[in-house]
Specification:
Layout: H1 2-11, H2 15-22, H3 26-33, H4 36-49, H5 51-60, H6 64-67, H7 85-91, H8 94-127, H9 133-142, H10 148-162, H11 168-191, H12 196-204, H13 209-220, H14 222-238, H15 241-246, H16 254-261, H17 265-289, H18 291-303
Helix pairs in contact: 5-17, 7-17, 8-11, 8-14, 8-16, 9-11, 11-14, 14-17, 14-18, 16-17
Length: 304
């Protein structure tokens, strides 16, 4: 018995050696990824990703004659050429300023309507009982596969008959209609993960459905609602296809106005650069302003 025990003790590897062997690949990769070199690499990648934005900003601050003969990087050797003359000219261009106002008048209502209606419908599909609830939800999910291009002509004909074609309201309604299926699908799945006991406790305290939705569901669903709002805002703000079809010269957003200016690029380069930068920087400001809520919503969805 003593000999056998001795031979087994000699044959068995030390526990520390086994742990090191098991962690040899995964732990080394994890330690390498969390190192300072990787952080420096990610910072460099992030700065490289911002190069087009920085280039557009510097181009918008250069005189038109300089933009036609050299690249934006020439600013680093000749910083004296920086000027806000292009932005002054941009503010004097009625087409661009009106298109910026139109973009806000389209984007803000289309985002708010999708968030509000999507949240109410998502709560109804998640926690309210009514006939055909599951079938109605399947119908909403089925609308996700309908391409926007398929509905352009039929909806344009419908809007023309009821007087909504060529104005801001028509663009808002189209964006709202095509944004709602995804909003309902996203928020319904998020709301369905709320503990049932929490809702029942609120009902026992006398809370009705509307108060329950406002006091319990909305605060818990804040990250998901913020994520939806950011997605919808960016999609509507950067859209050109729908605005190109459903808007006219009095209701066109900034994307269509810039596309119109590009027809005479040589004469309007001093308008295009600052206009494109303003069109791009506003969504970036919105994203970074709600970055924490956006990340929380994504992580909450990933955990659930």
């Amino acid at each position: 018995m003593t000999a056998d025990a001795g031979s087994l003790s000699k044959a068995a590897p030390p526990p520390t050696t086994t742990v090191k062997a098991k962690q040899s690949l995964g732990s080394r990769l994890a330690e390498g990824v969390s190192g300072g070199a990787v952080r420096v690499f990610l910072i460099v990648v992030g700065l490289f990703w911002l190069v087009p934005t920085i280039g557009l900003l510097l181009s918008s601050l250069r005189p038109p004659e300089e933009m036609t003969i050299s690249g934006w990087w020439d600013v680093f050797s000749k910083p004296s050429q920086l000027t806000i003359e292009s932005y002054d000219k941009l503010l004097q261009n009625n087409d661009i300023t009106e298109s910026l106002v139109n973009t806000l008048l389209i984007t803000v209502p289309a985002t708010l309507l999708v968030v509000i209606i999507g949240a109410l419908a998502g709560y109804a599909f998640a926690w309210m009982e009514f006939p055909g609830r599951d079938w109605w939800f399947l119908g909403v999910v089925g609308l996700l596969v309908v391409p926007v291009q398929v509905a352009l002509i039929p909806v344009a004909e419908l809007f023309g008959k009821i007087g909504l074609f060529g104005n801001i309201m028509g663009v808002v309604l189209f964006h709202t209609g095509f944004g709602l299926p995804f909003a309902v699908f996203l928020l319904r799945n998020f709301f369905a993960e709320i503990p049932k006991e929490l809702l029942e406790a609120a009902r026992l305290d006398g809370a009705g459905e509307l108060r329950l939705f406002a006091r319990v569901v909305l605060p818990l669903g804040g990250p998901a609602i913020a994520s939806l709002g950011i997605f919808q805002f960016l999609w509507v703000w950067n859209d050109m296809l729908i605005a190109l079809v459903f808007s006219d010269t009095d209701s066109q957003p900034i994307t269509v106005a810039l596309q119109t200016q590009m027809r005479a690029f040589a004469d309007n380069v001093d308008i295009l650069a600052p206009g494109a930068f303003i069109s791009m920087v506003i969504p970036l400001v919105v994203f970074f302003a709600f970055q924490r809520q956006f990340v929380s919503g994504v992580m909450a969805g990933a955990v659930k």
